[in-house]
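Q: Hi! New to this. If I give you a protein sequence and the SMILES for zinc ion, can you show me the bound structure?
A: Yes, paste them in.
Q: Okay, here:
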Amino acid sequence: MVTVDWSQIFDNWGIKRVAPTDKNKQAYVLSAEQHAAVIAGGIAPSPERPATPFSVVTPLDHSHQRVTSSFYHSQRSAEAGREPEPRMGRELIRAWLQLHQEVLIGNIGQTLYAIKLDSAVGMTTDEVMLKVALTSPPLTVVAMAQQATARPLPKTVQRTEFTRNPYVVAAAIHRANNTCEMPGCTATLFARADGSSYLEVHHVVPLSEKGRDRPDNVAALCPHCHRQQHHGRDRVALRRQLQKHIRSLALA
Ligand SMILES: [Zn+2]
Ligand SMILES: [Zn+2]
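A: Thanks. Here is the predicted structure of the protein with zinc ion bound:
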């Protein structure tokens, strides 16, 4: 289920499912709301054929952050009493969108965005907003950052925390002996206010994945290696490497 509040993210937005005719004609017909977003985004219907291309930001797509599209009004006014229809063409509908997918078209200022609703399942509004901010063009980012409330309101968050055994933390710190436990790491650790080396004790298999709070599942890491375990592109391989190393120490 999608629980994102799109109004918090976009100036204008609309959602429409990809219809068989959209896919067959390789022209995505815009809903009234989507049409308003495209116009507000500063894009006028192209009089050229083929229509002038532009790029649309796709914030929740892992493989590309932009798709090429075009915007034009179909020339069907010759057909009795039919209004010209606003459509989007090119890669957006030819390749990116699949039949029956629900897609949001929205704008922030002069930037246009497309999001497949399926890719927002399970995400919070804040998570989506962060993806949007990180993929937006620099001019939009600067403009939005300047509009930010300088003093954000405090918010109450609920999260599950686990009570960690302080002796397990201390055991890892002692074992590390002032060096990051990630194999191959040569980081120089800075000193804390009390003179001890700064290390972060990380659960190799997270407690949320039923990892154990035991010395053979924790590693004392430098901040760089710690963040990399959580966010690195190679985190799966890095976890395996760290796990193998820590287990070998535990057996020694
Ligand atoms: Zn960690
Ligand atoms: Zn390290």
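A: Residues 113 and 207 are 37 Å apart (CA to CA). Let me know if you'd like me to explain how to read the tokens.
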